[in-house]
UniProtKB/TrEMBL annotation, chains A, B:
InterPro entries: TF_MADSbox (IPR002100), TF_MADSbox_sf (IPR036879). Residues 7-64 form the MADS-box domain. It comes from Capsicum baccatum (Peruvian pepper). GO terms for molecular function: DNA-binding transcription factor activity, RNA polymerase II-specific; protein dimerization activity; RNA polymerase II cis-regulatory region sequence-specific DNA binding. The lineage of its organism: Eukaryota, Viridiplantae, Streptophyta, Embryophyta, Tracheophyta. It is found in: Nucleus. It holds the Pfam family SRF-TF. This is MADS-box domain-containing protein.
Amino acid sequence: MDKRGEKGRQKIEMKLIEYRTVAFSKRKNGLGKKAKEYSNLTGEDVGFILFKQAGKQHSYVSPCIEKVIDKFHELKKNDSLQNHTDMSKTNVFEAFEDLRKEVQAFKEKCLDSKMSIDKHTLENRLKKFEAYKSRLDKIKKEIKGDVPGEQFKFISEVALDLEEMSS
Amino acid sequence: MDKRGEKGRQKIEMKLIEYRTVAFSKRKNGLGKKAKEYSNLTGEDVGFILFKQAGKQHSYVSPCIEKVIDKFHELKKNDSLQNHTDMSKTNVFEAFEDLRKEVQAFKEKCLDSKMSIDKHTLENRLKKFEAYKSRLDKIKKEIKGDVPGEQFKFISEVALDLEEMSS
DNA sequence: CCCACTATTTATAATGG
DNA sequence: TCCATTATAAATAGTGG
């Protein structure tokens, strides 16, 4: 008998659908799996954030990102005491977005031949980059021991329910 | 003739491999596609970040996250002038991670029956949540008009080359 | 990097527990 | 939410341009 149309995967139009908790859960897991595979293959660390809109079913926070952020704060304290470096950032994502901006600005200055960078500024920038970089290394090293059974890759996820508290 | 083993997809072990730029590019695109599909289906906004390690081939920044962050800064200025609200956060990811922490702390206080929350504190918290929420709404509204051809969903990506500047 | 093609693997929709 | 099964859809490794 012809089983087509009865069961098995059916094509889904990519538009907003509701109350498909099982399907959403599978896709969220799939997204995490793909991110982890990409990370394992390339060596890049991957983080992602889900912003949940309305009063949907639930909000979810993986323990992994909590751990990374806690460690980040802990190391921030130690670094500022020991090295007197600028450790003002309070969030891994923010710190690295900040670093990206600095790298970009630095590149632009280098490419602009009309403007020469003085050595003091250059040294300060490089110091800051080194500080951030060593902090990431420390975080990765510290977390590695806490995550049992698999190679540490920075796969993290945060889901927020934005409406939940204000209604 | 038997074409198995000659071409077509082969199984790949999920460990670090190098110089597979084409394969990586395909997987990065796939990751973005999956994130966009998830976002379109659920209505949640999704952001992800790639932390690139060593001096690999390239670093990539999508224009989308730039636009969101620029808009965030622009609205921050306006909000603080017009509403005198606390708009100290300088980064979308940081702001929402911060919000998540506040929500969590608030929940814990509510569940702790030994501790009653005074109305003044409660009102201040709700005000702050409302301010963040309206800012996200504004960002989404503003960006929507700038992204041609598709429904706005917060799919953003940042790749960093951490080693590039310090070597 | 892009595109296109093919053969295969992987993800997942539907369903039931 | 989890697990399992099945059939199909989608992703992608390998290759060449």
